[in-house]
Amino acid sequence: MAGTALIVVDMVNAYDFEDAERLAPSVEAALPAMRSLVDRAADDDALTIYVNDNFGAWRSNRDELVQSAMEGRHPHLVEPISPQEHHLFVVKARHSIFYQTPLEYLLEQKEVDRLVLVGQVTEQCILYSALDAHVRHFDVVVPRDAVAHIHEELAEAALTMMERNMGAEICDARDCRLRAGAARA
Question: What's the pTM value of the predicted model, to 2 decimals?
Answer without folding.
Answer: 0.94
